[in-house]
Amino acid sequence: MAGLRRVNERPLVWVVTPVHDGESYLAECIESVLGQTYDNWRYVVVDNRSIDRTAEIVGEYAARDGRISLHQTSEFLPIMANWNHALRRLPEEADYCKVVHADDTLLPECLERMVAVAEANPSVGIVTSYAIWGREVRHAGYVPYPVELVDGRDICRATLQGRCYVFGSPTSLLLRGSVVRDRSAFYNEQNFHADTEVCFDVLRTTDLGFVHQVLTHTRVHEEAMTSVASRINTFHSGWLTILYKFGRFYLDPGAYKRRWRWTVRRYLVYLAKSTVKLRVRHPAFRKHHSETIAFLWHTLRRHPPETVPSRNGVAASTADE
Q: Do residues 138 and 58 lie in contact, with contact meaning Cβ atoms separated by under 8 Å?
C-alpha cells in the first residue's frame, strides 16, 4: 500500500506542533527537530489562526526541507480542541507521534532514544525520559537505572499516591501511533490538564517506556500554559478529575477513599487561604473554582467516599478496617 513503511526502513515518527502566535520561540523549536540524530520523521505545524509571523516562519523552513509542512485551521479553536485537531491529522503510516510545543525543544538524541525503547518493548504505549523543566531536571528518582520498561498500572498507582511524576508536559512524551488513532478525541477538552489525564487512560492497557537521559526541554515563561495554570491554580481541579475518573481503577477501595478525602481537604484549605488573600476577586479565578466546587458537589452526591464503585462497577464498602 502506498505510503506504508518499507521493509527495513526505520519507524516513521510524526512530529506535530499545535501553535497560536508562537513566533517568539518557534524557530528554535523547529531547529531542534532538524537537529535530531534520527532522520525518518515528518513534521507538521498546526497553526491556530495566528496573527504573528508563525506561518511565515514555518513557510521558510518548509521551503528548505520537504519533511516540514504547515496546516492552518479554518477557525480559531480553544487550546485543547486545537490539540485534538492536530492529533487527528496523524497519518496511518506513522508508527509514533511526538508532540513538541512551540516554546519547547528536543535534545538531539530524543527521537533516536525514545524510538529505540518503544521498538524493543512492544507493550509500551508511552515513552518518557528525564526532562529539563525551566532550569530543573525532572522525572529522576523513581525508575531505577537501567530499567526501561515500567508496568503501566504500577506507575499510575504510584502517581495517584503522590510518590512520583514522570509524565511531564506533552513535549516530554513519545506516543505509539495506535494509541492516538484509537481515540477520536485524544485529549479531554474539559480538563486543562488533559495531557496528564490521557496518560492514565493509555496506561490502563499499555506500559511506560523510560529513557535515563535528558531528552526534552519545557520552557517556563509568563505566557506558557503552566504559568497560566499556576495563576488560576487549575491543578486541584485537574487532579480531582483524574482521581475521580481513574482512581477506582488503579487503587483499591480503601486507598481510593483516603486519597480522595486527602485531595478534597487540601483543595478546601487552599480555597480558604485564597479567600483570605482576596484572590477570589479575580473573575477568571472565581469562575474556574466555582465550576470546580460544582463538580465536587455533583461527584459527592453520586459517589460519597464511604461507598465507591469497585473496578468491576459493583459498589464496594470502603470502611477502614
A: no
Q: What is the pLDDT of residues 168-205, one digit of tens each?
A: 999 999 999 999 999 999 999 988 889 999 999 999 99
Rg of the chain (C-alpha set): 21
Contact 90, 173 (CB under 8 A): no
195 burial level (CB within 10 Å; 0-12, 13-18, 19+): buried
The CA distance from 30 to 27, in Å, is 5
Helix (H) or strand (E) holding 23: none
Query: In this predicted structure, what is the pLDDT of residue 65?
Result: 98
- Of the candidates 76, 77, 66, 20, the one whose C-alpha atom is nearest the C-alpha of residue 42 is 66
Tell me the per-residue pLDDT of 4-40, one tens digit each, with 9 for 90 and over: 454 458 999 999 999 999 999 999 999 999 999 999 9
Q: Is 98 helix (H, G, I), strand (E, B) or coil?
A: strand
Q: Name all contacts of 310-317 with Cβ < 8 Å and 24+ positions apart.
A: 310/248, 310/253, 311/248, 311/249, 316/253, 317/253
pLDDT tens profile 256-276: 999 989 988 888 888 787 776
Find residue 129's DSSP bridge partners. Answer: 211
